[in-house]
Amino acid sequence: MITIGRRQVLISGIFLWVFAVAGTTLVALTEFGTRESIIENERQVLLRNLHALLPSDKLDNDIVTDTLELPSSPLLGTDNVSIVYRARLGGEPVAAIFNSIAPNGYSGKIHLLVGINRNGSLAGVRVIKHAETPGLGDAVEIRKSPWIKSFDGKSLTNPGPSGWQVKRDGGDFDQFTGATITPRAVVAAVRNTLLYYQQNADMIFN
């Protein structure tokens, strides 16, 4: 015979099992039902970031899917494969947008999107992830400061090699008051991405 105490333990165990199964099923159903909308939301955020560098009227391909995996590279600041997004118009290459990393920001890695036109000039740069100090290093964000737009139209020859530094180091780019390390890291990362493009443009669009 099952004693009253053992019966209560058994009933409690059954209730816990039922609740666990029900909870797990509910979580699984919720994830299944929202997975497609989450993927689509992520796609739209990515598309907005890409089009911030390259307006939609400059291309006619699906830039989100016209991609190429790039191996890790010191010039891109990457330890793993990264994605380059390729823009085309009428089947002809227009620009490439790289996921680059400035590894030596003041508070760690600064993740960038770097758009480079087919002719090697910059379509634009945006910071998409960082941990820089609010009120100082976070001025690399477009919503905090227009500083990042100072890269627009620049290339490896405009300015020349000595110009690809912050002004404190003798270059052409402004630094932030009280925060030189952050812009210094971004300037170096953007120039390195231009160098990578110069060395690999044919492979990227092949």
Structure, briefly:
This protein has helices at residues 4-53, 181-205, and strands at residues 67-70, 82-89, 92-105, 108-117, 122-129. The chain is α+β, with helices and mostly antiparallel strands. A hairpin with a 4-residue loop joins β4 and β5 (122-129).
Description:
The chain is of the alpha+beta class and 206 residues long. It contains two helices and five strands. It has two domains: 1-53; 57-205, no CATH class. Strands 1-2-3-4-5 form a five-stranded antiparallel sheet. The termini are far apart.
Mean pLDDT value:
85
Give the strand order of the largest sheet, numbering strands 1, 2, ... along the chain. 1-2-3-4-5
- Class from secondary-structure proportions: alpha+beta
The biggest beta sheet is recorded as: 5 strands, antiparallel
Count of DSSP strands? 5
Low-confidence stretches are none
Features:
single chain; alpha+beta; 5 strands; five-stranded antiparallel sheet; 2 domains; 2 helices; 206 residues
SSE order and pairing:
Elements: H1 4-53, E1 67-70, E2 82-89, E3 92-105, E4 108-117, E5 122-129, H2 181-205
Antiparallel strand pairs: 1-2, 2-3, 3-4, 4-5
